[in-house]
Amino acid sequence: MTTHVAAMRLLWGALSGAGALAATSAGAGPLLADEAEPVLLAAYGDWSVYGFADGAGARQCYAATPGSQATPPLGASDPDWLLVTPYPDAPDPVVSVIARYELDEDRAHALKIGAERFELLPQGRTAWTANGDVDARVLAAMQGASEATLSASAADGFVVGSMFSLTGFAEALAYLEAGCPLKQ
Predict the structure, then answer these.
(1) Degrees to nearest 5, angle at CA 42 with 99 and 76
(2) What is the pLDDT of residue 60?
(3) How many other C-beta atoms can be found within 10 angstroms of the C-beta atom of residue 145?
(4) Of 2, 118, 137, 153, which residue is the least packed, with the fewest Cβ within 10 Å?
């Protein structure tokens, strides 16, 4: 298992509890070494940057935006999320989706950005790009587009999708690439 896959599992574990991805601004402020719950560090348009301490006490940051216009609604209370997460062993931040449903691991899933379509590899409720070369292409496409669309199959057979706004993404990515500095 690659390190970023293991980190995504850790990230999902940290995000799947109360508060999940939608940490509130009430929790904003300096990220302490022992904060396991995500803390809002910055917001840019429809994108937010969060940080938390991983299992080893190191700071982990990610940028995320919730999906909208989900089809079908499926009645789930949480939206799908599009995330961009830097890892020390990855040349570019890793692009992933955390879905509100279990994904069919035997079917293709895709993120469409402009005219480009990128395959996502699923495991449970998470799907991510195949490798760093794809991440670089996805990140470039995201910076030049206004929205991304997820097309996926739920484990129960439903074809599902979500639209993600990319407003503020370039600024959120710049913040991640600057090392998630703590705002004073």
Answers:
(1) 20
(2) 87
(3) 15
(4) 2
